[in-house]
Amino acid sequence: MTLLQVHFLAAGFWLGLLAVETVLELHPRASESTIAVVHKWVDLLFEGPAVLLVLTTGALLLGGNWPAPPLLLLKAGIGLVPILANFYCFPLVLARARTTDAQRAVVLSRRIKLTGAAIPFVFAAFALGLYLR
Ligand code: HEM
To answer: Ligand 1 pocket test: which of 7, 8, 9, 55 has the largest number of ligand atoms within 8 Å of its C-beta?
Structure first.
């Protein structure tokens, strides 16, 4: 399997996880505690490793294409936005699953949901990545 294929698969897997997490976080009848525990394990077992794989393979691909054309730099930059948002979100998810303070859990949930604003960047990076093939 090539580095590009691993990058593509990791990016696609991450997109699927984001779809599941969006349903989980926005589900009207799921309890806060269920959302907190399920999101934590999805992050620890799947999303964390997938994001690190997208970043590592992306950086290696970029290094292999250096000096990179402007459109590829733009694509990498757009791809970094949701990766950084994920690095911000990850400790919030862990803190929410740990806390017994209901008010704090509500505040953390609000911040976690806000990081969802980075999801369109994942689609943009994916589309630009395919366009650059
Ligand atoms: C949300 C994050 C990202 C997504 C969804 C994404 C998606 C993709 C896709 C779909 C491709 C095309 C794969 C193929 O041709 O089979 C690609 C290629 C590539 N990506 Fe990403 N990527 C992301 C983040 C990054 C980051 C952070 C970097 C750099 C640090 C990066 C660097 C590259 C490079 C250099 C290529 C290869 C372009 C080429 O040689 O054609 N990507 N990406």
So the answer is: 7
The verdict on the CB of residue 55 being under 6 Å from ligand 1 is yes
Q: Which helix (H) or strand (E) holds 93?
A: helix 70-98
What's this model's pTM, rounded to 2 decimal places?
A: 0.92
Q: Please tell me the predicted confidence (pLDDT) of residue 133.
A: 76
- Cα 61 to middle of ligand 1, angstroms: 8
- Measured between alpha carbons, how far is 8 from 111 in angstroms, rounded to an integer? 29
Going from the Cα of 74 to the center of ligand 1, the distance in angstroms, rounded, reads 11
DSSP state of 39: H
